[in-house]
Amino acid sequence: MKIVLLHCDWIEFEPKIKALEEAEEVEKRTQRYEEALVALVTVEKGDGVEKAEKAAEEILDVYNRIKAKRIVIYPWAHLSNNLETPSKALDTLKLLETLVREKGIEVHRAPFGWYKAFRISVKGHPLAELSREIKVAERKVAPPKGEKTYYIITPEGEEIDPRKADLGRFNQEFQALVRKEALKEELPGGESKVLAYLRRFGLEWEPSSDYGHMRYGPYAALIFDLVTEYSRSIVRKLGIPIFEVKGTAFFDLKVRAVREHAELYGDRLYSLRTDKGDIILRYAACHQQFSMIKDWNISYKNIPFGAFEVADSYRYEQSGEVELCFRLRRFYMPDLHIFALDEEDAKEWLLKIHHVIMDEMEKLGRNYELLINVVCPEEYKRYKDFIVRIARDIGKPVLVAIYPPLGLSYYWTINIEYHILDLLGRPREVGTVQIDVGNAKRFNIRYVDRDGTEKYPVILHTAIIGSIERYIYALFDTALRKEKPMLPIWVSPVQVRVIPLSSEYLKYAESIASRIEAASFRVDVDDTERGLSRKIVDAEREWIPYIIVIGEKECKRGTITVRRREDGRQVEMTLDQLLEELSEKTKGYPRKTAYFSRYLSMRPGFIKWE
């Protein structure tokens, strides 16, 4: 807390315009006080009762020495860049006013949260202008009592204490999840070879930025945009109206709903200071979507509906824990919120989304293990049957974490994390879904029900494929499990490479490439002056699904010889047959043109050979 003390002949002020949403309701009139000690007070983060008491002592000490007739406490947010939130600052100022009044002294407080016109006449003596910084000795605060309680819930409804369980009865993936989350065991460490291949394809750190910020080369940018478009295509198939929106990543902490929602994230908030005050960077699309939807006129007839944005999101992860494509400070969340009539309606939608999440990972040939978080023991009792229903649906056990009843105002009741086991044997969360019963009221999102009454919807939060970067991590982790690693054809940066045996066959190679490109597939031509074996090796290292070699035989027959990476076979076929095969294998997935030149001879060396 910082204070400037001014012994004044007089001070007068008039509130003009609200500066904060939380501004006090006051009458707009001029107030004037003669012979006053004016305390300009800035309340900083963490200021509480002790600092208010110490500040009252300092103010009263000066008051008694200068023999003023009254004290005026004047909120003044210009002495620090570390301001307390408005509601807490106002509480501290009110407490300071009370502490002074309790000493039998006339005290007045200028209104909080207003732009005020003011005039002041300061006396000219040694004690007329003083400043104070209020500090108190730091005290260690005991951590809150209580830890999460874990249970293994089987499809039969059996409730098992993980500490007493025979984990050998469960699959390897589920065992790893239980050991990491419930038993807090150290799992294998080290750097996964996934990271080397991410870098090869241009997904790498930006060394000129903060920790946890990535950059994307041409191949990486293409993969990123394909996955982004795929995330859109999934939500469009859900069978309800989906409204895609866009917005800012910067939100004002002085807005009560923003601040209350943000405070749940504590030191994971990414924040900055501007000339408007403290700004937080969003950690998902919640703030923007809720801020927008509160202004919509919603009827029960409109529900359910979804709001969607691929939101640039920010979380202040520990610098030593950031991991390429997986744990980032800036990432992109294909964030979908489904607005349901009530909690039971939300449960049914959670099950529908759950099936989609499971199906999407199965398309990659992988399976999820589930960690189900429940906000408190009371909610666990309410949701127990629902959790058993989920375990029965997937035909295997789930791990449940029950949060202790610490009185924290969590906005969700149940939260499901979907984990894969990576190449190092570590559980890695990718997909997620949760039921939110608090934010509609916090952000004042309402709908008109059948009987004409206004109600708050229940909101489902989900990222069906996880963040864009985590899904890409899963793609690479899956690719490296194959005998010949490869990405799914739809997301491979180059789907077909055409290699002429010499410049004599370049024209035919170009005609083949043009037809492939016209069919909306990505193709390039290796027109470099290198040997065939070197060209094929490089194409293999780029995991290119189809390599076409063009020589005299192909030119004469009007056919192509194709090396198919998926099965390792080399076959002769017509171009129409190849296009038909490509169409079939990429059916239902987005298509994009290449983000790089067709000819390898015209490209700078952006592939990171390691």
SSE blueprint:
Blueprint: E1 2-18, E2 31-42, H1 49-66, E3 70-75, H2 86-101, E4 107-109, E5 114-122, E6 129-133, E7 149-153, E8 159-160, H3 172-181, H4 193-200, E9 203-205, E10 214-216, H5 218-236, E11 242-244, E12 250-252, H6 256-262, E13 270-274, E14 277-281, H7 286-293, E15 305-314, E16 330-340, H8 343-362, E17 369-374, H9 377-394, E18 398-402, E19 412-421, E20 427-436, H10 439-442, E21 447-448, E22 454-455, E23 458-463, H11 468-479, E24 496-500, H12 506-518, E25 523-525, H13 532-541, E26 546-550, H14 552-557, E27 560-564, E28 570-573, H15 575-585
Parallel strand pairs: 2-3, 3-4, 11-15, 17-18, 24-25, 24-26
Antiparallel strand pairs: 1-2, 1-5, 1-6, 7-8, 7-18, 9-10, 12-14, 13-14, 15-16, 16-23, 17-19, 19-20, 20-23, 21-22, 26-27, 27-28
Helix pairs in contact: 1-2, 5-11
What is the spatial order of strands in the main beta sheet? 8-7-18-17-19-20-23-16-15-11
- Alpha-beta content class: alpha+beta
Tally of separate helices:
15
Please compute the radius of gyration using only Cα atoms. Answer: 31 Å
Shape verdict: elongated
Report, as a whole number of angstroms, the end-to-end distance: 54 Å
CATH architecture of the largest domain: 2-Layer Sandwich
CATH class of the largest domain: Alpha Beta
Are there runs of 5+ residues with pLDDT below 50, and where?
A: 138-144
The CATH superfamily of the largest domain bears the name Bira Bifunctional Protein, Domain 2
Q: How many DSSP E strands?
A: 28
Number of domains: 3
The percent range for helix content is 25-40%
Average pLDDT works out at 92
Largest sheet: 10 strands, mixed
Beta-sheet strand percentage?
25-35%
What is the CATH fold-level name of the largest domain? BirA Bifunctional Protein, domain 2
